[in-house]
Amino acid sequence: MTTVPEYFGSMVFDDRIMKARLPENVYRSLRKTMEENAPLDLSVANAVASAMKDWAVEQGATHFTHWFQPMTGVTAEKHDSFISPAPDGRVIMEFSGKELIKGEPDASSFPSGGLRATFEARGYTAWDPTSYAFIKDNTLYIPTAFCSYGGEALDKKTPLLRSMEALNKQAMRVLRLLGDTETTCVRTSVGPEQEYYLVDRELYNKRKDLIYTGRTLFGARPPKGQELDDHYFGTIKPRVAAYMADLDQELWKLGILAKTEHNEVAPAQHELAPIYTTTNIATDHNQLTMEIMQKVAAKHGLVCLLHEKPFAGVNGSGKHNNWSMSTDTGVNLLSPGEKPYENTRFLLFLCAVIQAVDDYQDLLRLSVATAGNDHRLGANEAPPAVVSIFLGDELTAILKAIESGEDYTAAEGAQMKLGVHALPRFPKDTTDRNRTSPFAFTGNKFEFRMLGSSNSIACANMMLNSAVAESLRQYADRLEGAADAPAEVQHILKDVIARHKRIIFNGNGYDAAWLKEAATRGLSNLPTTPDCMPRLLDEKNVAMLTAHKVFSVAELKSRCEIMLENYCKTVEIEALTMVDMARKEILPAVEAFASATAESAGKKKAMQPDLALSYETGLVSKLSVLTDRIAAGTDDLEQAMLTLTHDDVTAESVAVRDEILPRMRSLRAAADEAELMTAESYWPFPTYGALLFGVR
Ligand code: ADP
Ligand code: MG
Description:
The chain is of the alpha+beta class. It folds into three domains: 4-155, Ubiquitin-like (UB roll) (Roll), CATH 3.10.20; 163-218 and 227-410 and 433-551, Glutamine synthetase/guanido kinase, catalytic domain (Creatine Kinase, Chain A, domain 2); 567-693, Four Helix Bundle (Hemerythrin (Met), subunit A) (Up-down Bundle). The two termini are 30 Å apart. The model has no long low-confidence stretch (mean pLDDT 93). Residues 189-191, 193, 273-276, 322-324, 332, 442, 444-445 line the site of adenosine-5'-diphosphate.
């Protein structure tokens, strides 16, 4: 393997391989399934399985696995080998269509939120032919959906696929009504930009908080953080560059379009962006990317932290979900073209998104809700927990003109002049960027920026697709009933703009004044997971999601429960880790340092009784006050944990937020203060300074 084009996708059973290895009729019916969701019969599956197996075995694979995305947020797999006994006492490698189509992992240990009692252990995985199989670690990975014995989705892929179908159906209705006879399907595409931290593995191994929770629960601020803005897009350190090169190679082999890599705002923070692809594949690829980031890090003596807020005081990590809709004929429906004002189709699809985001602010907010992301949303670095849309000046002016019925005069396309003749001139974009908006239009796509770095992008996209499908359904219904379709389109645009313009905000989303204004506009502000998650079961949300067959009522109830349970467990593990670290590491360390100081003061005093020893005395008394505070804070936190009731998960999540998290913060404050006064040689684990600046 030498050049990138030669090894790109070499571990993927992709279109090229399928075409080369499948009989013509099998290939055609598989493509039909992939493109038009046509049902697939067993004879096709058998032929595909056999070709897949032959190809995989040639690449050195010995096993296969149904790879799925349960509600844990990480992927799951159970490996089976291809071997089958042969009459001569040896083995042959076998893989049938049945094994390809269906698997049956024991489902009882995956979160089901009451969908399945533990004694009902059956769960099924079903092959998703729309995402390519691939080889990793000598195993053929088959992307699958995961459901219960009763057919309810237990995973993140199934509702995502359903939402893509819902959007396709409604978008096709609208396109037909607009006179489009060529398009046969509309797909959403996503390019998720992934942020992450890299820290030295040896340092990481010395911190229980990182090991158990993925984030630091203690740690005083180092003298330098991100104040100088010298890390963003800065030169990449050799060890990190070697990591990135290795990572690219691994991702490329799996057909993942890793494209852009750079340092992010905070020290030790980086970003990787792939080229966009169909949402379902982008989701699978993002899960794989996160996994491989961690695996490659281990090879380089590093650990990749995907937590949303691994360090207090410096930026957290998010994931920007670049999203758009396009036709199979290659038209991006969110592309404004040369004259957006006259581009009715664009304006209608744009309005569908605006309405969707306004009508389902709560669903978008809760689709990114986790204990980790709560630390980020609304902090001065990530979009607030209030959902709004940035459209930019030009589109905002166009919508205003449509609403008021006035003519729109396009802004002159200006040239960028840099004042140096040798530098090239290029057309200036008609609008600047806005980094603070949770949902920003960026030229021909929307960028949903509230996702946390560890979130599966499936959750955000299933809500986004469903909500947009709902707007489109309403437009299609109106257009179907209208005598004059072009006139009706104009009426729809006007109505939507008038009703939903409150969601458009082009200003600074980090500004406190915006939160006030958002409240007067009636936008919802749901700062924490316990605030937003129960909204999943609001009547309007249940009605919409069930109408488009993305979820059943039982599935929604189970998701809400699983997500709240996950929130509680996450925080509870953090609290227990803090208690453990405070008692077993921090208190003994501070105490040892105070004792040593007192002891040396005693020796000095014995030697020369008239010494003032104000440094030692002051230090020992301050440290004693702090150790008392830490000890009391630890007991208090532990006590609060004991009084938590676990009967009702909604009540528990509120108690976790209001009783546990504040106690964790105050325990941390005392410990961080002690850290600043304790000799470095006594401090029991690596400091922020070492973690953030330790990788050379
Ligand atoms: P920007 O300069 O706005 O960040 P980029 O071209 O760098 O835009 O794209 C950022 C991300 O958006 C990339 O992952 C890219 O592949 C993705 N992207 C670009 N066009 C689309 C599209 N039509 N649909 C979805 N994602 C897209
Ligand atoms: Mg971006």
